[in-house]
Write a structure and sequence with these properties.
The chain is mostly helical and about 300 residues long. The protein has 13 helices and no strands.
């Protein structure tokens, strides 16, 4: 949240989606590099190794930020009104466009988290993997890393050009349509031959591209619609919505997977399609930029 607010503080509005993409790329690379580093720490230092390695990286990151990053807040900046947590949520969500963007982020995160939670079980059933040797979990980890690499590549290199070409709102809608198109066939890919595995990798690549294209333009628009002194609080509400999605999605997806493997995927595909239609109806047909009116209202 603080990193995204900092990016918003130091970046002009037209560049914010691109810079938010770099934050997303950093998260994606973290998910890719984290497990191998943890395994290295475990190998070198035993069970305490991953913890010591994480602590060392955090200390290095702290020193790096302390030395390199200048303070973005200026003494002349307007102070943020202090509100209780629930009041801050209500204050943020009562503004239609910002509330809609936060809802879009919640639903997109919910769908992707449902996929992450159940991928190991799904491929174990569809590709006849040996759960006793944890083969399914290992492969799921590799596939998530594969998605992370694709997502990091897209967020780090393509976001800026895509935003300039189509705009944030259309990019969000297109990303949700890609998510819809990839979630629906995923539970029906099964077999042991190279064709099934190749098809799985193609569908996962589409899913990774779709999910990676949602977050940066959503946060770019939220930032543009929010006054400078409210950036941290508003982005914090959006991040909290994403955290709630990651709490509820595993319960939802695992429960439905137990009923039938395709059920959570088809429902999440329908949710993505509904969200895309909502974005097309409510955002793509609106003139941009819209930050002036909403930012003025949010500052009250």
């Amino acid at each position: 949240t603080v990193a995204q607010a900092y990016i918003a503080d130091i970046t002009p509005p037209e560049e914010r989606s691109k810079r938010m993409g770099l934050i997303g790329m950093a998260f994606g690379l973290g998910f890719v590099c984290g497990p191998p580093l943890g395994a290295l720490g475990l190998h070198l230092l035993g069970f305490q190794g991953p913890g010591w390695l994480a602590a060392g990286l955090c200390a290095f990151n702290f020193c790096l930020a302390l030395v390199i990053l200048p303070e973005s807040w200026k003494p002349s900046s307007e102070h943020v009104a202090t509100r209780p947590h629930l009041d801050q949520w209500l204050h943020t969500l009562r503004h239609p466009r910002i509330g809609l963007l936060i809802a879009v982020f919640f639903l997109a995160t919910f769908c992707f988290a449902s996929f992450e939670t159940t991928l190991g079980l799904l491929i174990s059933m569809n590709f006849h993997l040996d759960a006793a040797t944890h083969q399914d979990m290992k492969l799921a980890g590799y596939l998530i890393a594969y998605c992370g690499l694709i997502g990091a590549s897209v967020q780090g290199g393509a976001i800026g050009r895509l935003v300039k070409r189509s705009g944030e709102s259309r990019l969000i809608a297109n990303s949700l349509l890609l998510l819809t198109a990839s979630l629906a066939p995923l539970p029906f890919i099964r077999g042991t031959g190279p064709l099934a595995w190749g098809l799985l990798l193609v569908v996962l690549a589409v899913l990774a591209i779709g999910s990676s294209l949602t977050r940066p333009p959503v946060f770019g628009l939220i930032s543009m619609l929010t006054p400078a002194h409210e950036q941290g609080a508003t982005i914090g509400v959006a991040q909290s919505a994403g955290s709630l999605a990651r709490i509820f999605a595993p319960i939802f997806a695992a429960s439905l997977l137990d009923v039938h493997p395709w059920l959570p995927y088809l429902i999440c595909s329908a949710i993505s399609l509904f969200t895309a239609c909502l974005v097309i109806q409510r955002l793509c047909r609106e003139p941009w930029p819209l930050q002036t009116a909403d930012a003025a209202d949010l500052a009250k």
